[in-house]
């Protein structure tokens, strides 16, 4: 229910932004898109997607799973489709089911892989976001407001992760719901999945090389994404330096990642208008940039949808 409410609010915010900024101004900005530069950004999707598939493949190593890079990339894209098409990206967990069926691992291990990947992504974005706030050189009042907001979100993120990693506490919290709602015939498998998840998550503390490699690939893949989105900005005649751009982009992407709407709709546009305004970018251009980011997400989700439909045994 809450996810649906947030999704509706995100859509209303998006429509409000279109109304206040002006649809004609936004369309005018989009019509000026340099298709050659846009195509260059599109080409970068290829290494970006394969790096994400490679990171997933590496995160599966502790489970001795034989998996190909191509298959991992396909499953990542299918998961991205479900994550984009569902409120609050709740469909992301569908990827764990595909990992389980494709690579003969447990559902708990599949969930652990998705969970760890998400943590790596968010930690990287938070690190760059904090660096951006410090280095942007904004007026003290604005810097303090954004910094305090970031600290608050990061604190919530850390608390949620710590709570989720406390197996005993989570067991106590979910036990009443488990006993009341879980069908009797599924209780044994659900308990097994619960234990598998924590065993899998904690196994990464032993496989330090896997964690380091996944962290390195996270940084490389995000830098490619930064390059893609910078090309989108240039294609829209947003003339700012790459150094300045990567200081504000992580905050926009963090807001987009919040589980409050379909694909970050509304929230991403608001964040883009705010953060890019500090670099002298107008609201119409910022909204157009955000819409091209949305288009990139739709393209990836569409590929995932086609792959999902092409599978012999879709889940």
Return the string of H and E elements.
HHHHHHHHHHHHHH
Query: Compute the gyration radius: what is it?
Result: 20 Å
For the sheet with most strands, the description reads:
none
**Percent of residues in beta strands:** under 5%
Q: Helical stretch count?
A: 14
Number of strands: 0
Oligomer: single chain
Which segments are poorly predicted (pLDDT under 50) over 5 or more consecutive residues?
none
Distance between the termini: 24 Å
Helix and strand content put the structural class at mainly alpha
Question: What share of the residues lie within helices?
Answer: over 70%
Shape label: globular
Q: What is the mean predicted local confidence, pLDDT?
A: 89
Number of domains: 1
Written overview of the protein:
The chain has 315 residues and is mainly α. It has one domain. It has 14 helices and no strands. It has helices at residues 2-21, 23-31, 35-43, 45-59, 69-85, 94-103, 107-135, 140-165, 167-181, 184-203, 208-235, 242-257, 267-277, 283-310. Helix 6 packs across helix 7 (107-135) and helix 12 packs antiparallel against helix 13 (267-277). 36% of the residues are buried. The model has no long low-confidence stretch (mean pLDDT 89).
How would you briefly describe this protein structure?
Helices cover 80% and strands 0% of the residues. By secondary structure, the chain is an all-alpha fold.
């Amino acid at each position: 229910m809450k996810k649906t409410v947030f999704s509706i609010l995100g859509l209303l915010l998006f429509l409000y932004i279109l109304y206040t900024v002006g649809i004609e101004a936004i369309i005018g900005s989009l019509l000026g898109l340099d298709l050659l530069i846009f195509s260059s950004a599109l080409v970068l999707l290829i290494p970006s997607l394969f790096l994400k598939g490679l990171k997933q493949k590496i995160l599966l190593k502790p489970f001795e799973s034989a998996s190909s890079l191509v298959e991992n990339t396909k499953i990542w894209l299918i998961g991205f489709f479900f994550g984009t098409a569902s409120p609050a990206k709740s469909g992301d967990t569908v990827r764990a089911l595909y990992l389980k069926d494709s690579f003969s691992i447990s559902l708990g291990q599949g969930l652990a892989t998705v969970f760890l990947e998400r943590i790596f992504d968010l930690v990287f974005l938070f690190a760059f976001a904090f660096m951006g706030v410090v280095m942007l050189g904004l007026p003290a009042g604005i810097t303090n407001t954004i910094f305090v907001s970031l600290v608050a979100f990061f604190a919530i993120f850390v608390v949620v992760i710590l709570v989720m990693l406390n197996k005993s506490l989570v067991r106590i919290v979910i036990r009443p719901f488990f006993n009341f709602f879980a069908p009797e015939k599924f209780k044994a498998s659900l308990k097994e999945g619960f234990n598998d998840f924590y065993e899998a998550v904690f196994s990464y503390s032993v496989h330090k090389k896997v964690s380091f490699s996944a962290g390195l690939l996270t940084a490389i893949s995000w830098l490619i994404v930064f390059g893609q989105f910078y090309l989108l900005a240039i294609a829209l005649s947003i003339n700012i330096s790459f150094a300045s751009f990567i200081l504000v982009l992580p905050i926009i992407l963090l807001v987009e990642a919040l589980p409050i709407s379909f694909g970050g709709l509304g929230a991403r546009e608001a964040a883009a208008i705010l953060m890019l305004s500090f670099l002298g970018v107008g609201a119409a251009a910022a909204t157009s940039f955000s819409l091209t980011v949305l288009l990139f997400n739709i393209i990836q989700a569409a590929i995932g949808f086609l792959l999902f439909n092409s599978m012999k045994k879709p889940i």
